[in-house]
Write a structure and sequence with these properties.
alpha+beta, 6-stranded mixed beta sheet, two-stranded antiparallel sheet, globular
Length: 245
């Protein structure tokens, strides 16, 4: 990327930040975001159909019902802008791509969140997905009593750890599912944690799994959360995961 292009992107980001700050202060906590807001155990979430049409779309055989026996998720073959990429063309590959993305996502750094989302997004939706991630991260900071933008550090951070999944729909090139995650937040040194449920939809494009969107309409139910790896989680349809070494 040329210096001129980089400067232009930075200026655009600063303008977005100024507009965002004003909008968030007016709207308060009204943003419904894939990552943070609407992430509680009872919130709604659903998958909108976005992005490139898959090269093939046929149902695939997927495991049903919950299980405490971990599903081994494959690792990626590389890293792009801090996000693992390069997953196999399987249902487990799609789940692993989303799970790894969550696990590295910098939730309290809007600029980093924007870059990370762009790296894994469906190409023609990349700027839209990145902008949603930027807004989501900024909203998370604001709702925690922090400035609208900033960097993560030992006192201020938002992280996720993916613990289980549940399939909603699986096709050869599109997989929609839910993830059960541990969320850890520290705002000005005050820590909190909770278990959250998030919707993920991945599309196979250009030889890898891509994220369809980071914002979903409310009103569509998510499965109930549960303590990861518990009998209750298995009864509620959650399948535990483990990462391949």
């Amino acid at each position: 990327m040329s210096l001129a292009s980089l400067d232009q992107r930075r200026r655009s980001a600063r303008r977005r930040l100024a507009l965002l700050a004003a909008g968030l202060l007016v709207a308060g906590a009204g943003i419904t975001a894939f990552f943070v807001l609407g992430s509680d155990d009872s919130g709604g979430g659903g998958g909108a159909q976005h992005g490139s049409a898959p090269s093939a779309s046929a149902p695939v055989t997927t495991p049903t019902g919950g299980s405490k026996t971990p599903t081994a998720l494959p690792t990626g073959k590389g890293v792009k802008d801090g996000v693992p990429v390069g997953y196999p063309h399987t249902t487990e590959g799609a789940i692993s791509a989303a799970a790894h993305f969550y696990d590295v996502w910098d939730g309290f750094n809007p600029f980093a969140a924007e870059t990370q989302a762009r790296a894994i997004a469906v190409p023609e939706k990349a700027e839209e997905v990145a902008a949603d991630a930027f807004r989501s991260s900024s909203a998370a900071r604001l709702s925690s009593g922090l400035s609208v933008a900033g960097e993560s550090d030992h006192a201020n951070y938002l992280t996720f750890q993916t613990r289980a999944y549940r399939i909603d729909r699986a096709e050869a090139d599109r997989v929609k599912f839910w993830l059960l995650l541990n969320s850890q937040t520290s705002a000005k040194g005050v820590q909190s944690s909770k278990t959250v449920v998030e919707t993920a939809e991945m599309l196979w494009v250009d030889g890898d799994w891509r994220l369809v969107a980071v914002s979903y309409p409310t009103g569509q139910p998510k499965p109930p959360a549960a303590v990861p790896d518990s009998e209750d989680a298995a009864k509620k349809g959650w399948r535990s995961i483990a990462y391949e070494k």
